[in-house]
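Tokens as discussed.
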């Protein structure tokens, strides 16, 4: 049987790897990129020059950086995601009520992607809120586990096989059977918990958002453990976030008895 898997275009793959390297290195010269990707310096230079001419890379002194043209593509993709329009009003209300940090997230190629962040008046600093566009592993976050609860076990295993289950803290779930058992509990309760699994001393509660029978993302609220004692963390916040999810899914519903 002929191989039906798509062939990669090597030049596109290299260009994307260079972009990722520029971000990871916070800017770099051709030599550093060549060493990072194990390619020739002249090859790295040619790619950087092409990306610069197309507006995707900028140069400051002798260092290349990611250009703002990527921002146009990223904002277009974000603003066209259905989670943004339907979730922000209710997430804002949840943050105002709790004073903590709220996240709107979605899954993209097996990673948890932050689409929106709303900070409450009790926020600590950006270390805890992260940034829009952040890509994280699904297993360590309430939002990630919430989204996984809407997937089949086979799809969950595909994500695990592709990305693994790295540990953020000693509390992170890194065993496949343990994660599947946790996901089953999320399905039963309708909410997912992050009990110091991503950051020590930090707790969060998340829930999936479903639109037209498809899980399209999740809403999460989080804060320091000292402000989230067990009863508040395990009962009060889940009730609040279930109400928020109800509002969001009603707002996103395409059907109405009055139409």
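Sequence:
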């Amino acid at each position: 049987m002929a191989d039906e898997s798509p062939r990669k275009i090597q030049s596109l793959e290299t260009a994307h790897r260079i972009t990722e390297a520029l971000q990871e290195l916070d800017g770099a010269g051709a030599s550093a990129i060549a060493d990072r990707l194990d390619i020739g310096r002249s090859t790295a230079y040619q790619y950087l020059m092409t990306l610069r001419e197309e507006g995707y890379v900028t140069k400051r002194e002798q260092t290349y950086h990611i250009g703002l043209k990527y921002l146009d593509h990223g904002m277009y993709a974000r603003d066209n995601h259905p989670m943004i329009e339907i979730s922000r009003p209710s997430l804002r209300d949840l943050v105002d009520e709790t004073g903590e940090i709220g996240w709107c997230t979605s899954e993209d190629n097996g990673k948890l992607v932050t689409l929106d962040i709303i900070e409450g008046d009790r926020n600590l600093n950006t270390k805890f809120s992260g940034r829009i566009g952040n890509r994280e592993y699904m297993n360590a976050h309430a939002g990630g586990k919430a989204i996984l609860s809407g997937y089949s076990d086979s799809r969950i295993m595909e994500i695990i096989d592709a990305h693994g289950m790295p540990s953020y803290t000693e509390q992170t779930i890194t065993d496949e059977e343990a994660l599947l058992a946790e996901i089953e509990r999320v399905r039963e309760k309708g909410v997912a918990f992050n009990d110091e699994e991503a950051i020590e001393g930090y707790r969060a509660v998340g829930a999936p958002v479903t639109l037209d029978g498809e899980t399209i993302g999740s809403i999460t609220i989080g804060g320091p453990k000292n402000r989230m004692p067990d009863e508040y963390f395990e009962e009060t916040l889940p009730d609040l976030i279930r109400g928020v999810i109800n509002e969001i899914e009603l707002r996103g519903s395409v059907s109405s008895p009055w139409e």
